[in-house]
Specification:
single chain, six-stranded parallel sheet, TIM Barrel, binds zinc ion
Length: 308
């Protein structure tokens, strides 16, 4: 599906307005990335869905005079490993363990505090801006290298993280149930669902949506004997129906995927996260968000968005 089609279907408002608005959002809040940064094309395509939805919400809030938006850094990792694959998508999803350790070291040196996604979300729900030094590290899909590469480093630096598990996909690349339990018992890692089969949720029937969200929750709750309150939508793909079902089956917070982690304190089922890719200047990105928060305002008098 082209970006234009997504805009036409998702917007429900005139295409030109939506497109201009989308461009404004992108240009207004795009963080400065280092020149060597590789943002996977596939990631850009996936982001389009979430970003379009967010753009509409920001616009709607501006019109309804709800100045509720600010940035809160929730970072997304996939593999903590290097790769011999050459596609930009594969490269972009791999952050090697040496680089991950450098990120943890620099977070510590710059006095950042890692908190669980659930802690950040609970704070956002109160409508307040979280402390500038809070950062969330999330890991998608439940790859085995989280156990072999990420967990030892999280323990070394006593850093917290949140991992979102696909419960219905098994294989040597994925965590075993025993590893998931051990990770949970480390006390440093919060566990959430990433669906059963990793589909584009918004494209499914309500029955399949419900099954993906509730069966994965039930699986993890049985395995870990604790409440699973976080759902992370595969590909960041969600819509209002997915949000409603997530709430109905008992989740407290839903996470999507958007390079600009612009949060809406009135929507706890569309919390934004930003991807980390190899070579990314993470501290620079965090400082950029802080600076944007200081200048963030929505010009409600005209209903026009003005993010500085
Ligand atoms: Zn995923």
């Amino acid at each position: 599906m082209t970006n234009k089609k997504i805009l036409i279907i998702a917007a429900g408002i005139p295409l030109a307005g939506a497109a201009i608005f989308f461009i404004l959002i992108k240009s207004a809040v795009a963080p400065s990335a280092p020149a060597e940064t590789i943002l996977p094309r596939q990631t850009i395509d996936r982001l389009t869905v979430a970003e379009t939805t967010k753009a509409q919400k920001v616009q709607a809030a501006a019109i309804e005079r709800k100045p509720l938006f600010y940035f809160a850094p929730i970072l997304t990792f996939h593999y903590i490993a290097t790769t011999s694959e050459t596609s930009s998508v594969a490269i972009g999803l791999h952050v090697g363990s040496a680089e991950f350790e450098k990120i943890l070291k620099s977070l510590r040196a710059n006095k950042y505090q890692t908190v669980f996604a659930g802690e950040m979300a609970a704070y956002l729900k109160r409508g307040a801006r979280p402390p500038d030094n809070w950062v969330v590290l999330t890991f998608d899909d439940g790859y085995r290298d989280f156990y072999t590469h990420a967990l030892p480093l999280l323990e070394k630096y006593q850093a917290k993280a949140t991992i979102f598990i696909i419960t219905g996909v098994k294989g040597s690349a994925y965590l075993t149930p025993e590893q998931i339990k051990e990770i949970d018992q480390s006390g440093l890692v919060e566990i959430g669902s990433h669906s059963v089969t990793h589909p584009m949720l918004a494209k499914l029937s309500p029955e399949r949506q419900s099954a993906e969200l509730s069966d994965s929750k039930a699986y993890l709750e049985k395995l870990l004997r604790e409440d699973i309150t976080l759902i992370c939508y595969p590909y960041g793909d969600y819509n209002a129906a997915v949000e409603r079902i997530a709430q109905r089956v008992g989740y407290s917070f839903g996470f999507t995927y958007n390079h600009h982690p612009l949060q809406d304190s009135e929507d706890m089922f569309a919390i934004d996260r930003a991807s980390v890719w190899p070579g990314m200047n993470v501290i620079g990105f965090l400082k950029d968000l802080e600076a944007r928060n200081r200048g963030l305002k929505i010009a409600t008098s005209t209903g026009r968005l003005n993010i500085q």
